[in-house]
TrEMBL record:
The chain crosses the membrane at residues 15-35, 56-73, 134-152, 158-176, 247-268, 280-301. It comes from Pseudoduganella aquatica. It holds the Pfam family ABC_membrane. This is ATP-binding cassette domain-containing protein. GO terms for molecular function: ABC-type transporter activity; ATP binding; ATP hydrolysis activity. Keywords: ATP-binding, Cell membrane, Lipid transport, Membrane, Nucleotide-binding, Translocase, Transmembrane, Transmembrane helix, Transport.
Length: 590
């Protein structure tokens, strides 16, 4: 969809606002047209001594009234139209945000957060301006142009009008050339701003790493360079925008010169009164606004087009995972993976797939351990279950249905996932935990925190549960962040819990307590008929020893599987890793 179609659709949707603004503008243009003729008549009346003192005062009063009416009408249309244009901004931002929230990891791998933020702010502002200011100025300018030209041609003197219009085609040509430069310069300027935004976002997120590595100076230097590039690109766009003004000035000066030449001759010949020539000159002056409006409109439209050309691909980007499932409730049932294979986009066809030939079953209420060397595919497998990734081969079924038969929201509200990097929002600890369940009571939140073995830590914080955690929980330790994220997942109490190395930053004692609580929850679920399953991916084998089934992944394949004891008996990777970790633990205990 082009920008013009987007705006046309929006105008249709909000036609009352645009109609009201248009009517007020027409009123302004009409009243504006009256002024020069009245001034011309006053001058002729004064020159021929036919205008009395009281008549002059009356006419001046009328002009004042017209001026006041124009003022209020101008305020009126601006308010009406801008209110509508801001709505377009809201609509676009909401659409953009909704699309972003549906996108999967593959999309975010290709897009920089700073770019997306620039699109949601700067670029949409430019589109908003094209739908508001540009529409207004375009309509106002065109209306004024048509009315002023009509009066000049039909109401004053058509010969003067024709000669005055001679330089205008040249101006149109100049405008066309300038606007194409503005388009290029605006695209560049928006891109540079995005890059600058990206740098700020990245450096602020990684500010601790930057400081630790002593890279502040290098980063500041990069920022300075990016800011310089952005300013230069913005200046180039401004320079081209400024080029409209001399083009308008030159055109008007030429038109005025031609008018005065021919007008003077006609006055001299007695074919035109001085009042008419004055009125014509004022009308000519009134063309300044339509000409500036044309330049202003063109530059706003080019900026809007450049911005929309950047935004549209994001709005139309295909979703990595479609949401065409229809089943809105997940029945309890077995989770079955059959010959699942997943290869990341961009991975070479001859490169090893991240998951190969994965077949396994998890009965309701069972706990499965997922272990294996780093990069063996544990996180990938969990993300397949969340439908963040869609396998190229094989099937994943839950409760007898393929995963994609469920709506994404049904699927995701049946799963609690604690990723490797737990994310905390800038809110209180209580709010961060309560995110998992709307209207959770404080008692529920505290219970979940106790299960995640973080309750006592929270009570030691200055404001307890009301302690604000900064962006990404900057005030909490890694282990505390992990446990707040686990508490959030446990509060949701969903059918399937996925822990992706979510206990890596807690000590083994705390890990044992949390795992015992999970086991209690599982038993309670079993007794109440609401089975709770869990998949625990971990580097530390102590986290999975009690699992009903342990899967060992190596290079994306299942290399071993069974209970802890049977895996020890197999004497493969698991057994040697277990011995190694046991030795390490006993050395640590010394
Ligand atoms: N977004 C991605 N694009 C391309 N390859 C990826 C991507 N994410 C992971 N991989 C690759 O897929 C393989 C499996 O990665 P995965 O993160 O699932 O392993 P893991 O077992 O969870 O590792 P770790 O224990 O270190 O977290 C690795 O070779 C990794 O490099």
């Amino acid at each position: 969809m082009s920008l013009s179609r987007l705006i046309a659709g929006f105008v249709r949707q909000h036609w009352p606002a645009y109609l009201a603004a248009g009517a007020m503008l027409a009123g302004v243009a009409f009243l504006g047209i009256l002024v020069p003729r009245r001034i011309g008549a006053m001058i002729d009346g004064l020159a021929t001594h036919t205008l009395s003192g009281s008549g002059l005062l009356l006419q001046l009063g009328e002009l004042l009234l017209i001026g006041v009416a124009i003022y209020f009408l101008r305020v009126g249309w601006r308010l009406r139209l801008f209110a509508a244009a801001y709505l377009l901004g809201v609509q676009l931002r909401t659409r953009f945000y909704a699309r972003l929230s549906l996108q999967g990891p593959a999309f975010y791998q290709k897009q920089r957060t700073g770019d997306l933020m620039a699109l949601a702010t700067n670029d949409i502002d430019a589109i908003e301006m094209a739908a508001g200011e540009a529409m207004l100025a375009g309509f106002d300018g065109t209306l004024t142009l048509v009315m002023v030209l009509g009066v000049m041609l039909l109401g004053v003197d058509w010969r003067l009008a024709c000669i005055a219009l001679l330089p205008f085609p040249l101006m149109a040509l100049a405008f066309w050339r300038i606007s194409s430069h503005i388009h290029t310069a605006s695209t560049d300027s928006l891109k540079r701003f995005s890059a600058l935004n990206g740098h700020v976002q990245e450096t602020l997120s990684g500010v601790r790493a930057l400081r630790a590595l002593g890279l502040e100076q290098r980063s500041s230097q990069q920022f300075g360079e990016l800011a310089g590039h952005a300013a230069k690109a913005s200046l180039t766009a401004q320079v081209w925008e400024a080029a409209y003004e001399p083009a308008v000035g030159l055109t008007l000066t030429t038109a005025t010169g031609l008018t005065l030449g021919l007008g003077g001759y006609l006055v001299w010949q007695g074919e035109l009164t001085i009042g008419s020539l004055t009125a014509f000159s004022i009308y000519l002056g009134q063309l300044i606004w339509p000409m500036f409006a044309a330049g202003w409109v063109l530059s706003l439209i080019e900026r809007g087009r450049a911005a929309y050309a950047r935004l549209q691909p994001m709005l139309d980007a295909p979703l990595a995972v479609d949401d065409h499932g229809t089943i809105a409730q997940l029945p309890p049932g077995e989770l079955v993976l059959d010959k699942v294979e997943y290869r990341y986009p961009g991975q070479a066809a001859d490169a090893e797939a991240a998951l190969k030939d994965i077949s396994l079953r998890l009965k309701p209420g069972q706990t499965m351990g997922l272990v294996g060397p780093t990069g063996s595919g544990k996180s990938t497998l969990l993300r397949v279950l969340l439908r963040q990734l869609t396998p190229q081969h094989g099937t994943v079924r839950w409760g007898g249905h393929a995963l994609d038969q469920y709506t994404l929201s049904a699927l995701r509200s049946a799963i609690s996932w604690v990723p490797q990097e737990s994310f905390l929002f800038s809110a209180s600890i209580a709010d961060n935990i309560a995110l998992a369940r709307e209207h959770a009571s404080r008692a529920d939140v505290e219970h979940a925190a106790s299960l995640a073995a973080i309750h006592d830590d929270i009570l030691l914080f200055p404001q307890g549960y009301e302690t604000e955690v900064g962006e990404k929980g900057i005030t909490l330790s890694g282990g505390q962040r992990q446990r707040v994220a686990i508490a959030r997942a446990l509060l949701a109490n969903n059918s399937l819990l996925l822990l992706d190395d979510a206990l890596s930053a807690v000590d083994t004692g705390t890990e044992t307590r949390i795992l015992e609580h999970l086991e209690e929850l599982r038993r309670a679920g079993h007794q109440s008929g609401a089975e709770r399953s869990a998949i625990i991916a971990s580097h530390r084998l102590s986290a999975v020893v009690n699992a009903d089934l342990i899967i060992v992944l190596r290079d994306g394949r299942i290399s071993e599987s069974g209970s802890h004891d049977s895996l020890l008996a197999q004497d493969g990777w698991y057994a040697s890793q277990w011995r190694y970790q046991q030795l390490e633990a006993s050395l640590d205990a010394l």
